[in-house]
Specification:
2 domains; alpha+beta; Dipeptide-binding Protein, domain 1; 15 helices; five-stranded antiparallel sheet; single chain; seven-stranded mixed sheet; Dipeptide-binding Protein, domain 3; 554 residues
Length: 554
């Protein structure tokens, strides 16, 4: 399925730090559980975790599933691949620990006032961008200002942020429109976490083809759909890092081709999402392997058919209900995932505090769905039919064909439209679709999904961050409650309500959860063992997104 953004950790029953401070020396949980990543690996020495002394030097080639359209975090459309590029050239303000805590990275501290309506970000001292200019309060302000005014990112930021101003030599204070208890997760998990050099932002094209950050690698060259290469930053602010001399990303959307490139040695490391690929490398100790198939830190991305609720035929709730009734997530998971991943019926899964057994999402019933189609066609001049956008890759096309078969079985003609992932995302943003394969909604804190479901980001025409265009004020009210309250019980109840309302509205027809694996040749070390500047272990596999900073080759 098409991938966009990545999962983070679970919002559980933690309490807020009294002062609302996340500092570099005294780390405080915002809403963090004590969970550890669990999944399948190829065992010690083949699991991406390296305890030995790192070797300096070497050029790493990474195969990724999609190409980006540009690298400006204030204007780009970052998916999982975009975050990999971002962590190469930029640094995030905050990061997620291996147990789901928000910890400082480029930021020295993140401080809230008593009611969580003001947050102050302070960046670390004496850090410079690759162009030699200081990363200070003025630079941070320039980034936040561009985010706020961005035609894309601004749509997500403006409904939540009222104002912002530089409040110190290294600080910016943001004033929120309402209490935002879980704001730190946004600065760790959304693309606005990355800080670009003001010279990049002021370039004629926003520096989209020439990123300049503070990160471990300095941009060297980019040939779209061929390679992106960056060299080690000799002045990186984290002592002794990076270990590699250079890093190259190669976009190989066809996962079978990506896997073959790894086997042949054309690439050194890749992320993978199809059951065929995962089963081909699991247990093969010629390669290092780790996935997130078990109990994981956070809620996983879930796969779905996203429906355009602002256009025919899915502006009719009955049409959406028919498709959901006629699509079996159990059959889908068994056929496509081969035991790797299970079926889903919402954004939260059993084991999550937000999971509700009272989800009104329709149960699969083929005969009932076929009868509903006949009744619908009898009442409407246009018979129920639709097209499905999908990425032009064998694994995603196979999933689309299975959906097509299930629709055919209940009497709905469905055409398949294939395209590149960047085009699929663009069509979703601008509403140029009826149905589209989609993978999203994994999150550290559920509020990271606010912008995807909000009435404030839903537009029937033009750009809409709420891409399903399901503008339900009940969902908006529940999400605000889930973001604003310092009480865990209130937040949990609110997000359970969101899950149930999505089951009523059916903007998404759910299929299965996403399982992501990172696979490498055995000489590639430590891609699953990143640490924060404080030394605290970080989340190593966020739905296929990892940290290049501390990787080395033996």
């Amino acid at each position: 399925m098409a991938q966009r953004f990545d999962r983070r950790t679970l919002l559980a029953g933690g309490t807020m730090a009294t002062a609302g401070v996340i500092g570099a020396s005294a780390l405080a949980d915002v809403i963090a559980p004590d969970l550890a990543e669990a999944g399948v690996t190829n065992g010690p020495g083949r699991n991406g975790v390296s305890r030995g002394r790192a070797r300096k030097g070497g050029h790493l080639v990474i195969g990724i599933n999609a190409e980006e359209q540009g690298f400006n975090p204030t204007t780009g459309r970052f998916d999982g691949a975009g975050f990999l590029y971002g962590r190469t050239v930029f640094d995030p303000l905050m990061a997620i620990s291996a147990t789901g805590k928000v910890v400082p990275y480029l930021a020295e501290s993140l401080t809230a006032n008593a009611d969580f309506t003001k947050w102050t970000i302070t960046v670390r001292p004496n850090i410079r961008f690759h162009d030699g200019t200081p990363c200070d309060g003025a630079a941070l302000l320039a980034n936040i200002d561009r985010q706020y005014k961005s035609p894309l990112v601004g749509i997500a930021v403006q409904p939540l942020v009222e104002s912002y101003a530089q409040s110190g030599p290294r600080s910016v204070t943001l004033t929120m429109r309402r209490p935002w208890v879980t704001f730190p997760y946004t600065l760790a998990s959304q693309q606005i976490c990355f800080v670009a050099a003001p010279s990049m932002l002021s370039a004629p094209n926003g520096g989209s083809d020439h990123p300049i950050g503070t990160g471990p690698f300095v941009f060297e060259s980019w040939l779209p759909n061929d390679h992106f290469t960056a060299r080690a930053n000799p002045h990186y602010w984290r002592p002794g890092l990076p270990h590699l001399d250079a890093i190259t990303f190669k976009a190989i959307p066809d996962e079978n081709a990506r896997a073959q490139a790894l086997r042949s040695g054309t690439i050194d490391l890749m992320h993978a999402f199809s059951s065929q690929t995962l089963l081909g490398f699991r247990g093969n100790r010629q390669f290092s392997y780790a996935d997130d198939s078990g109990r994981m830190v956070g809620s996983p991305n879930v796969n779905s058919v996203m429906l355009n609720c602002a256009a025919a035929p899915f502006d009719d709730p009955e049409a959406r209900r028919i498709v959901a009734t006629g699509l079996s997530s159990a059959i889908f998971a068994k056929t496509i995932d081969q035991g790797i991943s299970g079926p889903v019926n919402g954004i939260f899964q059993p084991g999550s505090p937000y999971y509700s057994r009272h989800n009104p999402y329709p149960a699969y019933n083929k005969a009932k769905a076929a009868a509903m189609v006949k009744a619908y066609n009898a009442k409407h001049p246009t018979k129920l039919a639709f097209s499905l956008n999908t990425v032009a890759a064998p694994t995603t096309l196979r999933a689309a064909q299975l959906v097509q078969q299930m629709m055919r079985d209940i009497g709905i003609p469905m055409a398949i439209k294939t395209m590149q992932q960047s085009e699929l995302i663009n069509d979703a943003l601008y509403g140029s679709f009826q149905g589209t394969q989609w993978s999203q909604f994994g999150a550290i804190s559920p509020e990271l999904n606010y912008i995807w479901f909000s009435t404030t980001t839903s537009h029937k025409t033009g750009l809409s961050i709420n891409m399903a265009r399901n503008a339900d004020p009940r969902i908006e009210t529940a999400m605000i409650a889930g973001m604003s309250s310092p009480k865990a019980s209130v937040r949990v109840a609110a997000w359970r309500r969101v899950n149930e309302l999505l089951g009523q509205d059916i903007p998404y027809v759910w299929t299965d959860r996403l399982t992501a694996a990172i696979i490498s040749r055995p000489n590639v070390q430590n891609w699953a063992g990143p640490t924060a500047p404080s030394g605290l272990p970080l989340l190593g596999n966020a739905q296929g997104v990892f940290w290049p900073t501390q990787i080395w080759k033996s």
